[in-house]
Specification:
This protein is of the alpha+beta class and 295 residues long. It is built from eight helices and 14 strands. It starts with 12 loop residues before the first helix and ends with a strand.
Length: 295
């Protein structure tokens, strides 16, 4: 397939990506366990890395960087950052055994190692956490698109909504992460984001603009999104990925979908290349996961 260049005036990366027809399904941030650090200093390009460096002991920070399936994020209140009470460090696991825990103290090296191995010690946190990326120094779209979403959600749902550092895929701004399930979303506005939050509060995964669940590989994320668009808001266990097998350009994903068997053959279809955006950075390769056949 010939990939053409997207010919348009320079605009923000999220606008150009949407105009190119890019589908965010299959682009979710990858991790199995997470650590959330309340970081009130100004956020730079790598706010999460700065939080780990400034808040954790060197050995604990090294353990974070060495843990392949652990992802650290910086978080901060949506409103009243200077006067808001500190948010305890939080950790958790995603997926079917999703857990969110409040930690009594900042984790040391053994605690980080335990978190990475999904051994969590702490107090279970109440409900879900809605985290909207506003890491403007990473990409301006995260502030221009993300901040209005965070503000609107916080006005209705309060402090269960927080700002979070870079989630990956800023070209899909506004981006949002639902914890502890680990589902991320893109191309959000306040209206769609509200629907996602209302579903999450009922223990459901909303299919609108879903990017994927953090512990699944891209093709499985795309397959999960395909099935969820068919069945509508449903629990995490409504789609249980069983196996992912790639043969050449085609990937077969098998799953249990609402108690029955599911099989999808998918392949990645490249879209237009976006050579330059107002946000700077490298050229963007767009595309989507296409379903070849089901069954």
């Amino acid at each position: 397939m010939i990939v053409t260049t997207f010919d348009t005036a320079v605009a923000p990366c999220s606008d150009l990506t949407r105009a190119a027809g890019d589908d965010p399904a299959g682009s979710g941030t990858a991790f199995c366990t997470f650590l959330l650090l309340d970081y009130r200093s100004p956020w730079g390009r790598d706010a999460a890395g700065d939080a780990v460096r400034d808040l954790l002991a060197p050995a604990a920070g090294a353990a974070v960087h060495a843990a392949r399936a652990l992802r650290a994020f910086a978080i901060r209140p949506v409103q009243g950052r200077r006067g808001a009470i500190p948010i305890p460090a939080r950790a958790g696991t995603v997926g079917h055994d999703a857990r969110l825990m409040d930690l009594a103290t900042l984790p040391d090296e053994p605690a980080v190692t335990a978190i990475a191995s999904e051994t969590l010690v702490g107090n279970p946190a109440d409900g879900v956490l809605i985290a909207v990326c506003t890491n403007a120094r990473r990409d301006r779209c995260c502030a221009v698109r993300g901040r209005p979403v965070a503000t609107a959600l916080h006005a209705e749902f309060g402090d269960r909504v927080t700002e979070i550092s870079h989630l990956g895929g800023h070209r899909y701004a506004a981006t949002m992460l639902v914890l502890p399930t680990g589902y991320s979303y893109g191309f959000l506005d306040p209206v769609i984001a509200r629907d996602v939050v209302l579903a999450a509060l009922d223990g459901l995964v909303h299919p609108a603009n879903v990017r994927g669940r953090a512990d699944l590989p891209p093709a499985a994320q795309a397959a999960d999104a395909f099935w969820r668009r068919q069945i509508g808001p449903a629990g995490v266990d409504a789609v249980r990925i069983e196996n992912v097998r790639t043969d050449g350009d085609e990937t077969l994903v098998t799953a249990t979908v609402q108690g029955g068997p599911g099989r999808l053959h998918l392949h990645r279809v490249p879209g237009p290349e976006i050579p330059v955006t107002a946000c700077g950075g490298k050229p963007i390769s767009t595309g989507r996961w296409a379903v070849e056949r089901a069954g």
